[in-house]
Amino acid sequence: MRNMRDIKNQKRPRQPQKQNKGMRYGKKGTAQKQDKALLAMSLPAIVWYLVFAYLPLFGIFFAFKRFSPKPGESLLKNLFVNSPWAGLDNFSFLFRSSEMPGILFNTLFYNLVFLLLDIVIPIMLAVVLAELHSRFFSGFVQMVLLLPYFLSYVTVGYCLYGFLATDEGQVNHVLRMLGRATVQWYQSPGYWRVILILVELWKTMGYAMVIYLCAITAIDRTLYEGARMDGASFWQRVRLITLPMLRPTIATIFILRTGSLLTSDFGLFYQVPMDSNSLQPVTQTLDVYVYKALMTQANFSYSAASSFLQNAVGFVLLILSNLVVKKIDRDSSLI
Amino acid sequence: MKRLNPEKMWRKLLFLPALFLAAFGLSGCGMQKNRDITTLRWVTYSASGASMDAKEVIEAANQVSREKIGVEVELEFQPSDKMNLMMASGESYDIVFTSSWINNFDKNAEAGLYCDITDFVERETPALYESIGKYWDLAKIDGRILGVPILKDMGAEEQFRLNADYFEGEKGMEIPERMDGLKALEPFLKAYKEDYPNKYPMAMDKGGIPGFLNFLERIAGGVIVIPYRQDSEIPQAMAIWDCKELMDRYRLLHRWYQAGYIHPDAATIDSTDSDKSIPVRFGVAWKGYMGYSNPAQWGCQVKTSTYEGPFLSRQSGQGAMFGICAACTEERAIECLKYIELLSTDQKFRDILAYGIEGKHFNYLENGTVLQTQTGIDRYPASLYPTGSVVNASVASISPDVLSDPDQWEKVFEGYEKEGIYSQTKGFYYDITRKESIITALQAIYSDYATELRTGTSDPDVVIPKMRKRMEAAGFEELLADVQGQLNEWMEKADHEEYEGHKESKETETASETE
Question: In order of start, what are the domains of chain B with their CATH numbers?
């Protein structure tokens, strides 16, 4: 979900670019006044990325060093002079666990499901909402769907606990009223793949929907009017106008999400299941494993190693998916 | 819980150089103003950060220490992750809280992060040196002293905290001062469950019973244990699954879980403190500790009963220590020691950081104990060990009627001599550096089972074999062999030194670990 912010940043500069295309590249090599203005506007973002995204890149060295600092000396000296090279040793703790295939499976499984559902369901919602005539009702639905996005997973976890607690939980209350046997939810891993997917959807679909809704509102209304005059049904309008016009947005979201296929929301997989031991086979993702392994030790080299691995894989996936998108539709790719 | 995000950490690390500069700049200014006063940066542990009146109290203490030894402190209260970050990034400080459970002493000392004070501690601060006595061993690495142990309860004594109104008053049961093991609790649990079938008598959250593993020395985060009492001459390190006592304890807890003595969701509950109706609680404390007995706090008359211990080992003794930064010059290290000495020998001074300002946060009672005022409880809640010697601080009473024994510490230490159960490992500590990646992998596996085992939720005979299989695949045997190897070496060396010691000075007894 955190990629949504990036998408917005990405999208904004693109539109003015298109409009100005003819003018900007008219004279070769001369910067136009408008360029400077745009550059000035994007300066804060550039600085932010330089300071917080590019500058810390030297931290990659943590992953290949046996970090052993001397107190009172500078971080750079501690990292480059005082710490010996460790080769790939820092990565080895990741591969010692016999559960690693299961952990990787969980990470990829949930991310692929989310990737699919977070595109399909919000688009469906956005299409339906765009058709609504009552603006009040449309706004109300948007607000209700968007609200959970602003809750932290810790809060969400406790809300869920209110439903699923063994003794006092609402779900077991209902089961008892119906004369059914109660369930110890936090000790029953069978249900949790579904529960986690539902929780994630509930929390994030509102935000994704707003993005698609914006994209739909930006579609030229006359296309729909013309189609309607030609006798196109609702489904035909969606299939032949809305979806093709949404294609660049979908492609952008798809590409950015594939970059984080090995990264998972720690809150969802650790806080929401309350770190229950029994649920571990279905809730353990790579981030949760790393957290549990390093919780008691502050070994920055190990955590840097795992983060490096996740990001390297993410980078490759991102480039690959961009290539695929480019093959299918040149205009929708990012690079 | 914090989300693990190394990128964020790097970002934080980036600011450190800037902070350094700022700190140097500030301290530079301070130095010029009053030439004779040394300002020490002292970082101590607090899970919840500094209390509201901390600034005021520290200033009050500084006034005294400036006058007495020309030293003042900038005392910071930091949670454990901040301290880890500080140590791991090589940040500058003078004194730091270190122990076997937070900011690990053995690991840091082994890595050379602490100042070696062996050569001057006795010469410069004789009173401090004498007061710590045989406990200096806790701070020794290869015979060198790299820290200052804080005198407090040095052994782990496990207690039941029972609702006396109910068990003694209503049920007519007797709560003896000493009970034999955890299982002695069963009749109490049973009685309550019969009266209240829908309630759960045991206070149990996901942390488990506090201190219930203290009857073992635990290595590598608890996956390897060394029992205190062993038949063999050289203590044997063993796996959790090979330790019968531990397995039996897990089985007992699981039986209690099934009997309904433990809340079914115990493994996901954060705290049971707010439920005052729970009649059976647990604690780790010492003889005469009154903190569990305040009826106003717990809603009933509480009687404590020791069921295990006191267990004494290097680990239990390292509950709280001072570390002095290796970057300190000898001069500065001596200033640190002088300050620690003042904390350890001057009771009036010690009480300031322990309880706050007299008249505002606490008052002295007639028998020499301390009573906190409501302001003190709210704005400077007492937590003694992070700010220095507990033994040298006055003892706190709970109310003008419930008085504590002002001389309790003498009795506590006497108790250690008389009934203490001493580890046979002679101060052994395991150097993790060679096997760190195995330990890290094992930690992740252990944490997949530990919560449900210690809360009795899962059946150890089902779950532990699974855990064992995974652990063995991750290199458990290799780690165990390394632990035992280091232990054997250690024992050999310790025996040899003891023998040499006896030869050298026949009249002075060396620190012998008596059973």
Answer: 26-151+318-355 (3.40.190.10), 179-280+410-515 (no CATH)
pTM of the model: 0.81
Q: Count of residues for chain B?
A: 515
Kindly identify which residue of chain A lies nearest to residue B463, measuring between CA atoms: A278
Q: Please give the C-alpha separations between residue B381 and each of A86, A254, B33, B56, B357, in angstroms, as whole numbers.
A: 45, 53, 34, 14, 12
Of A52, A276, A298, the CB nearest to B84: A298
User: How far apart are alpha carbons B61 and B45 in whole angstroms?
Assistant: 18
Of B3, B450, B451, the CB nearest to A267: B3
Q: Check CB contact under 8 Å for B443 and A296.
A: yes
ipTM score of complex: 0.78
CA distance A277 to chain B (A): 5
B111 touches chain A (CB under 8 A): yes
Q: Measure the CA–CA gap between B173 and B160, rounded to whole angstroms.
A: 15
pLDDT tens for residues B54-69? 999 999 999 999 999 9
Domains and CATH numbers, chain A: 45-87 (no CATH), 99-332 (1.10.3720.10)
CB contact under 8 A, B7 and A307: yes
Amino acid at B122: E
Question: Between chains, do A297 and B436 touch, taking CB under 8 Å as contact?
Answer: yes
**Taking CB atoms and an 8 Å cutoff, what residues of chain B touch A90?**
437
Mean confidence (pLDDT) of chain A? 85
Of A166, A270, A298, the CB nearest to B88: A298
pLDDT, one tens digit per residue, over A83-120 is 889 888 889 888 888 888 999 999 999 999 999 999 99
Return d(Cα A45, Cα A90) in angstroms, integer.
Answer: 33
Give residue B506's pLDDT: 45
Residue B11's pLDDT is 52
pLDDT band of residue B127 (cuts 50, 70, 90) is very high
